[in-house]
């Protein structure tokens, strides 16, 4: 059930009619019921599994509030990661083992399990997001970051909050739980929430989906294309992911505001960053902070010497790559990010500067950062390592070949995506709109007309969100 689909819009409107008439406890139960319906739409068995995990984690967290037992913490986190690992990484581990021991059955384990047992391991939607959110809650109870027990009802609202349940942002209990009993109906929230929903649909339907439509054939079968296509293909993918995921975040934040809650911004103009570390402070912010607080710092962070700091960065980003997908491509992408961030930190620590500081070099640094991010994203975007190396080879050997279909359209969409990114980076225009109620109303009316037209033209518009796969 996609946010920009007719069925979801009808579901949300039908519950919203009653939402603000209910007492706080009634609002909680309505959110829980809607969240149940939202996930049951995908799968009943996976929903029951998620509910079971939520129950055991709730009671484990309650125990850890009173008893700082590290063994219990390790046990419950191991259970959570085992479930995630089985559904997300079984095929990767099995085929890798098959390659090491040269076992034909394991090398093609997915096809063999389907053929022999009609069994296929399917990734539950949103499992990476809600697993990280649950683990953070349990760890925070152990660390005493959370010091008071909450009711199971509030815990389920926090974990199962449908605007962000399947693709984030990853909520922190310390940010969200204090709001749970105090949803606020404010005119400003309704206006800004509506604008965010419309903006998110615009990013998703009119930028991300068309780029994906025109470029997907190249990622899947990159042979025999002109070299120029490969060069702007990588920028197209970065803009596509940005528009797709920040569009989802905009919609999630907008829906949350309509319900009287605030959830964190996940993007802050990342594509204008002048360094990779700055980019990761602006891109998928809630994941970056989660990796920092629950992997990098527990590994020792930067407290155990320079070499250990680089090792910790490398491990953290490698695991971050695997979080995005159970493929060697994703692991390589994460490892490259870890190496790049380590080199960048090394240069900063030793004050090694390749460029002096001025306006021109700032532009150059921004381009280099964007290019390196886009270049490494080749491993993120391609389904196989073979395809990734075909594109990299094509970029530098400059072959002549077929042009990308509608490449002019793709270039225009890239520019639109970069402009939207600029609006996040330099928030002057956004802040002016947020201050001006009349402007908000005008944009809402115009956006509603455009949305209605798109619904009429395309029906349930566009495809699924990219991060639903994680």
In short:
With 470 residues, the protein is an all-alpha fold. It is built from 20 helices and no strands.
Question: How would you explain this protein's 3D organization?
Answer:
This protein has 2 domains: 6-182, no CATH class; 188-469, no CATH class. Helix 4 (70-101) packs antiparallel against helix 7 and helix 15 (328-349) packs antiparallel against helix 16 (359-381). The longest helix has 34 residues, at 187-220. With 470 residues, the chain is an all-alpha fold. It has helices spanning 6-19, 24-40, 44-66, 70-101, 104-107, 109-117, 127-143, 152-160, 173-176, 187-220, 227-258, 276-282, 285-296, 306-324, 328-349, 359-381, 385-397, 407-425, 428-435, 437-458. The chain starts with 5 loop residues before the first helix and ends in a 12-residue tail after the last helix. It has 20 helices and no strands.
Major sheet description: none
Count of helices? 20
Radius of gyration: 23 Å
Number of strands: 0
Query: What number of domains?
Result: 2
How do the strands and helices of this protein lay out in sequence?
Elements: H1 6-19, H2 24-40, H3 44-66, H4 70-101, H5 104-107, H6 109-117, H7 127-143, H8 152-160, H9 173-176, H10 187-220, H11 227-258, H12 276-282, H13 285-296, H14 306-324, H15 328-349, H16 359-381, H17 385-397, H18 407-425, H19 428-435, H20 437-458
